[in-house]
Amino acid sequence: KAGPVSVPLELEIPALKVNAPILGVGLTVDNVMDAPKGPIGDPLWESAYWYRGGGIPGDVGTATLAAHVNDPLGEPEIFANLEDLQPGDLIIIHLKYTTMNISFVVDQVKLYSVEESSDPAVLAQIYGIGPVSGSGPQPSADGLSHLTLITCAGTIVNGEFDHHTVVYATRTK
Fold it and tell me: The whole model's pTM is what?
């Protein structure tokens, strides 16, 4: 499995006062999107993770970013308040080393159980149809650029959270 790689992108969510570097990630040995963990205080906890098997943020299709809700001590991390986002809130991807920004507007915020978020139809919504079918990124049926944010939520059961908070957003023109 390839570790996280630096990409020239930063995530800003003004409503949540989030401004974080983005790292590119792949899949774990369990075939799930990697969300790297490190020792307490490691900058990995304060980064967002872009799934490199999906779309590129801003391209027609679906790009997916994950981040941690808390660190090993239970301290809040960058997606701790993801469920507080509202339709119409802004999400900005900054292209580092340029003045270019890609803006998305939140369409909806959903809470899924781990079982629900494992459903192929829900996975296709989160990651786009291509990565779920094994064919790589595909243009979205509506011809728009989508951004999905995902993090853990709910209660910890057997060492894992039992829900996911998912935010769906669409690029503004």
Answer: 0.94
